[in-house]
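Below is a filled-in request sheet from our internal design queue. Each sheet records the structural input a requester submitted and the sequence that came back. We keep these sheets so that new team members can see what a complete request looks like end to end.

REQUESTER: design group, bay 2
PRIORITY: normal
MODE: inverse folding
CHAIN LENGTH: 241
BACKBONE (tokenized):
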């Protein structure tokens, strides 16, 4: 029996990537659907998604939001939609090909084998990142160490955005109480699920820097992650999670 599976892809100005990533996911995985959550991209990303809906009826879906609200809220909207539509497995993934769609079957195999959350990790065996500038690599690498020190999570890549979840894990969370909108959201998801004693596992991936479009990382997102981790730990100590 095939579990009902969907990949959620948040987008903002991904017109150069979105068609190709949808094609690769849909054509190579006949039992996986795609949900794009677009923040009213001025480059008209959503119009390309509509074209793909016509090409792949009942396989590609679109939530078009009126404003740019951030990564975390895009995933929250996507999770709620996926739970409402009774998906069993829910996968978060970037649009820019930093996450290889070829990894999807391996990640899903682990969910079928009993893992609750499968994380595509850049840091299991050293650093598996291609074409990042050295400053970005060092920032990311030491950020993972910082998160592990503060939270005590036994996860080497807590900021990874390539994650396969069993729907029950997401459904166990109060999605309306999530507070972070940038990369800290990825940490918050893993931390809250880990605190609920679900089984999390990491799978080595090769992370490719985007060829097209621009990164959404900025100082505000970095600061949110730095102080957000402390807030998560503080709330956990005082049983506020």
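RETURNED SEQUENCE:
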């Amino acid at each position: 029996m095939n579990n009902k599976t969907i990949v959620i892809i948040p987008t903002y100005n991904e017109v150069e990537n979105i068609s190709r990533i949808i094609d690769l996911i849909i054509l190579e995985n006949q039992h996986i659907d795609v949900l794009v959550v677009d923040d009213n991209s001025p480059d008209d990303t959503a119009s390309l998604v509509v074209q793909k809906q016509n090409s792949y009826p009942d396989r590609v879906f679109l939530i078009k939001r009126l404003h740019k609200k951030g990564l975390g809220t895009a995933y929250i909207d996507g999770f709620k939609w996926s739970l409402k539509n009774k998906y069993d497995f829910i996968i978060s993934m970037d649009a820019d090909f930093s996450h290889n769609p070829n990894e999807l079957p391996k990640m899903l195999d682990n969910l079928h084998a009993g893992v609750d959350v499968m994380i595509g990790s850049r840091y299991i065996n050293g650093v598996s990142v291609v074409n990042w500038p050295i400053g970005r690599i060092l920032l990311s690498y030491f950020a993972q160490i910082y998160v592990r020190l503060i939270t005590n999570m036994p996860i080497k890549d807590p900021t990874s955005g390539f994650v396969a979840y069993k729907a029950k894990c997401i459904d166990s969370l109060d999605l309306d109480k999530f507070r972070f909108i940038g990369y800290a959201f990825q940490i918050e998801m893993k931390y809250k699920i880990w605190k609920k004693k679900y089984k999390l596992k990491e799978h080595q991936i090769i992370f490719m820097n985007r060829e097209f479009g621009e990164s959404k990382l900025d100082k505000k997102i970095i600061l949110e992650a730095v102080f957000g981790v402390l807030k998560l730990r503080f709330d956990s100590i005082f049983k506020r999670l």
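SHEET NOTES:
- The chain is about 40% helix and 15% strand.
- Helices lie at 18-28, 45-55, 71-84, 104-112, 134-151, 167-171, 184-195, 219-237.
FILED BY: M.R.
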